[in-house]
Write a structure and sequence with these properties.
- The protein has 20 helices and 5 strands.
- The protein is mainly alpha-helical.
- It has 2 domains: 378 residues, no CATH class; 107 residues, no CATH class.
- Strands 2-1-3-5-4 form a 5-stranded mixed sheet.
- The chain is elongated and about 80 Å long.
């Protein structure tokens, strides 16, 4: 469909309308929504976004292994929405919605621009089917969720570069950087697929050389963009010892048996065939429940998909169909890169670790089916296929907008309702702390966390941070919360947060006044006396 300009115009208009819609939603929810009270990883991600709004932040999301994912690009993408909303949590959902809609429009555009009508129609419908089964994904800002749709977009960008469309190179660098910086599990996928695309592009350039000036401009722009996007992690690495990149490298360089081939095959198959699962849910951060068989039915399905893509790639290569060849080759390389990545996981495989592969696997099934359909029908029904592709594209873009807005409405209703469970604990605790600080005329609190409920503690610190200067924490928690939470000698009020189980093991209660009106936690406040000079 490369010669059709109207579909490209329609896609561009849809992307523009989506952007305007997201801006309108940001303005609306700023005035119409009460705030939310996130806990756990969501609270930490919002703290990092606030770091990016208020100053220079060079790290990615925190990992349970003591280091950060490689870079802060995700937080700088969320920062404008967060700032415009007046630091409301729902803005992060709107930012995630914008990223996902941009990814979805990019997927539709690249399929219309580069693939056959049959491939476009099936791939777009498959993505719509996938999104309808994972409805909350459009507005979820947890980092393992936000990389799902962009990972599928990256595959199509690399296929476009491999097919000889050099203009897609800067976009592939931007999306690939976003994926690696946001979740390092995608690094092998991004690097191997990107290298494969570059090799294919160089090969096509040898046989069909472009103008030297055009190629030089593209390469310079791509390298400049790569340097710009990786500048914050480079600065952090150069100014800290050890830097975060060093910590990541040491972790992955440490001796580890990784995962057995049987486990890797089971996880690989489960993700590649995930779109056809009876129940497909977003990951929640728990270990996968794996079957004990040496080879599962989904593992056989993944092998079948790899063999199908390989056969279709060879066929397209013989027919000199560069688009189909690039799409199937990229899909095959992506699947194999994911399989290798699973073998290198150094702990229990979480349900989130490789979930992005479910989107890539769904796209691969549709590409394989579309290439076969185009091969069988030939020039027949081509006009009908084009009409169907355009209709499917418009339908899926509308579906993405509908799902996202519906999910934002649910978040808004949640903020307007009386808070429950952990959100209520955070709301009451933060209110008690802020009220105590106001009575004591305190400006910068110091928190000592003596509780096993770190999820609520993170939410409490977020609420305090949103309403004033960054609180301080003990030195061993600075790596987790970030350097803005380090002590600087200006702390004037101390808060000890504990719970019933932890308090029962203490020999004596913490010093200070116990704050009233708090549920499930105990909070003790006391003044910090500055040292005599």
């Amino acid at each position: 469909m490369a010669t059709v300009s109207r579909p490209i115009l329609i896609t561009a208009l849809a992307a523009t309308a989506s952007g305007l819609g997201v801006a309108g939603l940001t303005a609306f929810f700023r005035w119409a929504s009460a705030d939310l009270y996130p806990v756990s990883d969501q609270a930490i991600l919002e703290i990092y976004t606030l770091h990016a709004v208020r100053g220079f932040w060079a790290l990615g999301p925190y990992s349970q292994f003591g280091w950060h994912h490689p870079g802060p690009l995700y937080f700088y993408l969320l920062a404008p929405f967060y700032a415009l909303s007046g630091h409301k949590t729902i803005a992060l959902h709107i930012g995630a919605f914008a990223i996902n809609m941009l990814s979805l429009c990019g997927i539709v555009y690249l399929l219309i621009r580069n693939a056959s009508a049959a491939v476009t129609c099936l791939a777009v419908l498959m993505m719509g089917f996938y999104l309808s089964r994972l409805e909350p994904v459009m507005t979820s800002y947890w980092n393992p969720h936000i990389v799902i749709l962009p990972s599928a977009l990256y595959l199509l960008l690399c296929a476009s570069v491999g097919a000889g469309h050099r203009a897609a190179l800067p976009a592939s660098i931007a999306v690939g950087t976003f994926l690696v910086q946001t979740h390092i599990s995608l690094a092998p996928y991004v690097v191997l697929l990107g290298c494969g695309a570059l090799v294919a592009a160089i090969r096509s350039t040898i046989f069909s050389p472009p103008s030297d000036r055009s190629l030089r401009r593209t390469l310079i722009a791509s390298l400049a963009l790569l340097l710009l996007l990786w500048l914050p992690p480079i600065v952090e690495q150069a100014t800290h010892s050890p830097g975060n990149i060093t910590r990541v490298a040491r972790f992955f360089a440490a001796p580890s048996s990784g995962q057995s081939l049987r486990t890797a095959m089971a996880v690989w198959g489960d993700m590649v065939c995930g779109v056809f699962r009876r129940q497909l849910d977003l990951p929640e951060g728990v270990p996968l429940q794996l079957e004990v068989e040496s080879i599962t039915s989904t593992g056989l399905g993944a092998i079948a998909q790899a063999l199908l893509l390989a056969a279709l790639c060879l066929d397209a290569y013989r027919r000199q169909d560069s688009s189909s060849c690039a799409l199937t080759a990229a899909g095959l390389l992506a699947s194999l890169a994911a399989l290798w990545s699973i073998t290198r996981v150094q702990s229990l495989v979480g349900d989130y670790t490789i979930f992005w592969l479910s989107a890539v696997g769904a796209l691969n099934w549709a590409v394989g089916g579309g290439v076969m359909l185009a091969r069988l029908t030939g020039p027949r029904l081509r006009m009908l296929q084009r009409v169907a592709a355009l209709g499917a594209s418009a339908l899926v873009i509308w579906l993405g907008i509908h799902l996202g807005i519906d999910q934002l409405k649910r978040e808004r209703r949640q903020g307007l309702l009386r808070q429950r469970d952990s959100a209520r604990v955070v709301q009451l605790a933060a209110a008690a702390i802020l009220d105590d600080m106001q009575r004591a005329h305190a400006h910068r609190p110091l928190f000592h966390l003596s509780t096993a409920d770190w999820t609520a503690a993170a939410g409490i610190l977020l609420q305090v941070y949103k309403r004033g200067s960054p609180p301080a924490v003990d030195p061993d928690l600075v790596t987790w919360f970030g350097e803005p939470f380090a002590r600087n000698g200006q702390e004037d009020r101390s808060f000890v947060i504990t719970d019933a189980a932890t308090q029962a093991r203490l020999r004596e209660l913490p010093a200070g006044d116990s704050l009233p009106g708090v549920e499930r936690l105990y909070i003790y406040a006391s003044p910090i006396v500055p040292p005599a000079r």
